[in-house]
Amino acid sequence: MQVPIKRAIERVPGGMMVVPLLIGALIATFFPGTPKFFGSFTGALFSGALTILAVFYVCMGASIDFRATPYIVKKGGTLLFTKVGIAVVLGVVAGQFLGEGPVSFGIFAGISTLAIVAAMNDTNGGLYMALMGQYGRPRDVGAYTIMSLESGPFFTMLTLGVAGLSAFPWQVMMGAILPLVVGMIIGNLDREMREFLSKAVPVMIPFFAFALGANLDLSKVWTAGLLGLAMGVGVVVITGIPLFFADRLTGGTGVAGVAAASTAGNAAAVPAIVASANPAYAEAATHATVLVAACVVVTAILCPIATAWTYKKFGRPADPDATGEAPAAAEPVASPIQAQPGR
Hints:
Layout: H1 5-10, H2 15-30, H3 34-38, H4 40-47, H5 49-62, H6 70-98, H7 113-121, H8 125-135, H9 138-142, H10 144-147, H11 154-162, H12 170-189, H13 191-198, H14 201-213, H15 224-249, H16 255-259, H17 270-277, H18 282-314
Organism: Chenggangzhangella methanolivorans
Region (Disordered): 318-343
GO molecular function, one term: 2-keto-3-deoxygluconate:proton symporter activity
């Protein structure tokens, strides 16, 4: 008898990230002594998030091809710097009012500069590519090879430094991006290694998500729900509008820009990494992880809706690589978030 576990998880927006994270959080909340009780490899699953993420970023880097076409570089680079630029602006503004710590009371309790920047910085790649496969052009799908440079904590650390908050030593900054760079070098030197390593990317997502969740106490973060919903809506609106115009400036109709207005599942791991590099963010990291995870779910639902509306309103630009005319309308897609729920 077969039990459709994977399909059930993927029905949840961002399920491969959110479901294991929730399971880990439930164990940490109701059975906090579990890792110490079992110890050994079982205990390591609860505490190995950073190690798993280091390997994850090597494999992610291997999937990035240096030989991207000029259009892909232009499109992907424009969307990348627009998204990161928005995070920098918001980080600078929030940093003036919030500093490194989270808001400690009121309806905004738990929100921090770290949470805002981490949620805004990174695009859900699987969602973007699925939406572009439906509403865009093949070259628009390929633009994510450039946008995937957002992955990891590097841009978040850089943004926090630009915002005038606690900075990071250059060694830490280099260490944050080095696994990704090493993976890129390996993948571009050997295509077989690229294929081999890139297959591990989706496999590792539930494991580091579980380890992250194992460090969350739900009794302390139950208020994050409504705030997380508001932040998720904010990601789609605040990043979606500038990305729409950025896409149009590069010859698109705005569809690709709106499809990039989401939060990657991997972004939920960034607060913990940042806090491990600089203890000044330790208090903010716990709340930020939950808020960013909420943004993953909310944007995974809203972004496809906004993209479909943009396509219906503005259409798809003619594809010079196609032999015939582009179809007038796209067939409905059942669940674009199922392609790679974690990113």
